[in-house]
Amino acid sequence: MLNYILRRILYAFPLLLGVNILTFVLFFIVNSPDDMARMQLGQKHVTEQAIENWKTQRGYQLPLLVNQQEQGLDVIKNTIFYQKSLRLFSFDFGLSDSGRNIGADIQQRMWPSLAVALPSLLLGLVLNISVALMMVLFRQSYLEFSSIVLCIVIMSISALFYIIGGQFLMGKLLRLVPISGYDTGINAFKFLILPVVISLISGLGSGARWYRSLFLEEVEQDYVRTARAKGLTETQVLFKHILPNAMIPILTGVVVVLPLLFMGSLITESFFSIPGLGSYTIDAIQGQDFAIVRAMVFLGSVLYIIGLLLTDISYTLVDPRVRLS
Asked: Does the pTM exceed 0.70?
């Protein structure tokens, strides 16, 4: 099992390096520093001096890969690739194009994102799996049919409708919760209720149907028929046999949303004015702050790869065959 985990960890490094190189190519070769300067300055007739000043203030005046004017290691260190890309591996995000400390901003904004994403993930898993198990338990009945129709209806409606409708109904008409905003400490709870509830409702349709399909694949397996032949009830078969054997695809699905725990939801945080990393990214894109966008792309890649590693490690806990590989 240790060899399996070590192999997965070693696979992560070239993958992360590849993402970093691709990001560098997109930001500095496809879209050159001169292009970034012209977009940021926002003028039709920008002078070359203004472009050079903008690049110098942000460290974009350096050569891309090799600085032939330097000697020794400075040939590599005094380049855009080292200063703006390789430093990300030490989580040195540097300053934004507007002069803010990106690392400090991330540390401050990750907590509101976690406050929204963590309960949405955990409660969503419990709700979706519970509904899916109920549909499998009462399969080929009117309850299952009506549940499937309801899930399809929920899936067919845009998430924006739930957000705007929830704000209008719960915030404006009933005045049960604030429409938007955020506060620190225990006061943040009232601002989190509506985003979490909307997240649960909007994700119920697709989540419950997906888990239902996983459980139905296991229902007709030989080990399930053997369990029924031993006299176990359908509920015991579901929870003691079907659910544990479906854990691998469930864990695989969870990894997709793990980066959202820290990165936040772009749409939810923007509409509810939550100062998390999602709204931070949106503001950076709108303000054409390329340093922040670059840092968030790298951070998202790191979190996704960590999620893959955690998923592979969790496989060893639910599947004995993996431990022997």
From this structure: yes
Q: For residues 182 and 192, what is the distance between their CA atoms, to the nearest angstrom?
A: 8
318 neighbors 251 (Cβ within 8 angstroms): yes
Residue pair 319/251 in contact (Cβ under 8 Å)? The answer is: no
28 within 8 A of 80, measured Cβ to Cβ: yes
Tokens (6 digits) for 106: 């991330």
Q: Could you give the residue ranges of the DSSP H alpha helices within 25-101?
A: 33-41, 48-58, 74-77, 80
Q: Which CATH number applies to 103-323?
A: 1.10.3720.10
Domain ranges of the chain: 2-90, 103-323
Specify whether the CB–CB gap between 291 and 97 falls below 8 A. yes
Q: Running along the chain, 325 residues long, what does each successive block of 10 average in pLDDT?
A: 74 83 84 78 74 82 80 80 84 82 89 87 90 89 90 89 89 86 85 90 89 86 85 84 81 70 73 86 83 86 81 69 56
Say how far apart CA 121 and CA 257 lie, in whole Å.
8
Phi/psi at 34 (5° precision): -65, -40
- Name the nearest CA neighbour of 219 among 237, 231, 202: 237
Give every CB contact of residue 95 below 8 A, 6+ residues apart in sequence.
58, 101, 102, 291
Query: What one-letter code names the amino acid at 141?
Result: S
